[in-house]
Amino acid sequence: MDHTDDHLALEARALGVTFGSKTVLRGVDLAVRPGEQLALVGPSGSGKTTLLRALGGALHPTVGSVAIDGRDPASLDQRQLRAVRRSIGFVHQHLGLVPLLRVNHNVALGRLGERSLVGGLRSVFAPSRSEVHEIHRLLERVGIEEKLFERTDTLSGGQQQRVAIARALHQRPRILLADEPVASVDPARARAVIDLLTELAREEGLTLVVSIHSLELARASFDRLVGLRAGEVVFDRPTAAVDTRDFERLYQLDDTELLSDGA
Ligand SMILES: Nc1ncnc2c1ncn2[C@@H]1O[C@H](COP(=O)(O)OP(=O)(O)OP(=O)(O)O)[C@@H](O)[C@H]1O
């Protein structure tokens, strides 16, 4: 593995995360090159969300370290940390949209973090023409431009997913992290949303890490799969080299795990 920081968008080194007495991640090593796309797969509770949060600098590792574009968030001051976080777009599992706001306002919120509170709110509720144009263009790219002025809670689950993607892109990130972005849509729409994410990331040259429940979908849409089980990486391979035994290993429960689970 290439450990030259300059060449990595994201890196975890011997990463461990513990909540109270519960170890959620242990010994995780991961290296992601700029522009690379990969899927994190694993059973519920295996630590995918926690790993994404740590990689995005939203959670400090208990042991080990993370580097984002070669910089360890733990070594940065508040201003530097905000700049690093702005370079990362996050599509949350539960989307985090404001239901009563119009679609254009929710997308505009993507850039709130880069301005003062007053300036940010002005840009959301009284945006400049160029900002309106940019939001319209983003909604076109995610295929729901006709929803620009609709109230967000009137949109379908799949459409809201697209709003969340547009909001993350409006932030102009270099890295996009998506946590189960298709948890609430049916399989056909899930495929369309994942295809959209991978296509947009490719076009924009973004690094993309997506946690995904459906193995089928992960296999169909990503060239690299990282399997997590009980907080540990059990495989990290090109999709073509991941076989049925890897998947069995990922989903089997053994006595040790059952014993340690409640500990
Ligand atoms: N803040 C926290 N405090 C205590 N335990 C936590 C916290 N966050 C996560 N956990 C625990 O860590 C484990 C891993 O959670 P995580 O959400 O990372 O898994 P996941 O693979 O994303 O699961 P899912 O697919 O269900 O979203 C779970 O057992 C969860 O209960």
UniProtKB/TrEMBL annotation:
GO terms for molecular function: ATP binding; ATP hydrolysis activity; transmembrane transporter activity. GO terms for cellular component: plasma membrane. Residues 10-255 form the ABC transporter domain. Pfam families: ABC_tran. The keyword Nucleus does not apply. Keywords: ATP-binding, Nucleotide-binding. SMART domains: AAA. The keyword Transcription regulation does not apply. PANTHER family: IMPORT ATP-BINDING PROTEIN, TRANSPORTER, PUTATIVE-RELATED. This is Phosphate-import ATP-binding protein PhnC. It comes from Rohdeia mirabilis. The gene is phnC.
